[in-house]
Amino acid sequence: MSSDSLKIYYETIYPEVCIPDSRFLASKEGLVIYSRIIVFLSLPIQILCTFCILKKTPETMKNVKSSLLKVNLWSIFSGIILGFFVIPLNFFPHLCGVFIGLAANSNPIFQFNLFMTILFGVLISINILFENRSSLIAQNRFAISRTSTRNFWVFINFFGNLALLTPVFLNLPDQETTKLEILKNLPCPAKEFFTESMLIMAYQDFWESYLTVALLFIYFNLMAQILFFSICCIYYLFIFKSSQVSAQTRKLQIQSFVAIIFQSLIPILFDYIPTLIFLDRQRKNDYDQLNNNLMGLSIILHNGMTSLSILLVQKPYRNFLKSIFLSKKKSEELTMQQAAAVPFNPSRPFPVECYANKLNHHVLGAGTNISKEQVKFIEAIAKNIRSSHTYFLEISKNPKSQVQIDELQRRLEEKENENSALKKQVMELTKKLCKMESEKENRISDFGNKDKIRIKARTAKKLDQEKLEKEENEDKKRIEILEGEYAQIRHLKEDASILREYYEPSHFFKRLVKENEQLKTKILEKTTAMDRVMTENQKLKKTNDKALKNIDLLNENIEILKKKKKKKSSYGF
């Protein structure tokens, strides 16, 4: 009966009472398309993050490599499952919803368990990342040193959270009747409320409060564990500084801890936003399908943001990305440095300072990780420094060459003077350019202000015209409505006058008298006709009686004749 009632409600009442939501993101199709777009945009980032973790992780980060890989793999798995197979479409503030992914035909309870398993896996992998960072500090009293203890901690977190939700699945309400109850408070849900197989976890009873408290307890319990591991790291890295740990090791640990905080902050915010929306919906008892879909999309977006935060926050992966995008610029710098490594030519000698500057620039830019090619460049520049130094020493010993040097210096001074004059001209021209640009900007701003005033005036006129047109259309509609109402009132007045004439006492009494007289005449006519019929009946009865008597006489005569005949035959006649 309840399914028939839902069908009748959806086919009759729902189209008349409910206005369809025209927002694309509030529809099932919008949620599916945006979910898959997010997954398709996130997958390249997640694959690149996996490559960086596996191939570009330095030895100093080998202890956190497995934790980062787990977080990234859970994010990939979560994005694919929640973006393609189990896309949640919720009807908050009520604890019910449907799943509209590729696995929509499977059991809704199985889909919900898969959804919660994925979420718990992602959150616990973030917890493992903080726990690993905390346990790597040697002085930490709360460090989890044994693998068996860590596995037990993960087991309790994962299956303990699922166990908290088990009583709800054992006490699910009757789905069809609860749908009817929900329709009393939510008369116009999305059409998937009627067309898709829905799972209602609880409704207005103890289990609804239990489920809300259990979900919030699970979330804040995981956040409390992250906070505890962070406090341990802060205490042992910043407050309790042990002399057994070197300053370099402590610096690396602090950098790693700060990086983990920043890379986890963005994904945690994307989990925190849905929780705030859920709490706000529970408090206001307000329903908006667009906000519900945005909450589901934020959970899917969390996965791509996790991988992106790992790439941007961790320094080795960030440097690898820079090397990809800045490879062209570095190649140009290398060509400039290779020019200094060309063997020294006496026909066009460079001074020692030029080679020395190139050498210093190259050594400082190389850093600690120097390749074999860079070593060859440095050796070539050092050879050029020696040959340049010897060349200029020989020239200084030779007087003829000294004259040439003086001539060269004089020419250099002339060139420098010319350059200084050119520089002054360039400075003057740049000043003029600045003035012209400022004047240009002022003129543009003046013209812009004038155009803005004109545009505002025109828009104001257009708005006034649109308002007048709207008011005119509304007045026309009102006039049409009033004319229709007036016509109805006129017809009603005519009907009332007819009814008054028909039911007026004098007319009504006369009409009754006439009808009574007509009935009397009809009754008299019928009585006369009946009398005639009765008389005719009596006449027929009399003739019938006479006929019967004649028949009896004839029968008696026939019998007498038969007897006479028998007597004659007995006498021999």
Automatic annotation (TrEMBL):
Entry coiled-coil feature ranges: 398-432, 456-485, 530-564
Domain of life: Eukaryota
Pfam families attached to this UniProt entry: 7TM_GPCR_Srh
Transmembrane stretches, start-end: 33-54, 74-103, 109-130, 151-170, 216-240, 252-273, 293-313
Native source organism of the sequence: Caenorhabditis briggsae
Lineage: Eukaryota, Metazoa, Ecdysozoa, Nematoda, Chromadorea
Protein name: Protein CBG21878
Keyword set includes NAD: no
Protein keywords: Coiled coil, Membrane, Transmembrane, Transmembrane helix
InterPro entries: 7TM_GPCR_serpentine_rcpt_Srh, Nematode_rcpt-like_serp_H
Signal peptide: none
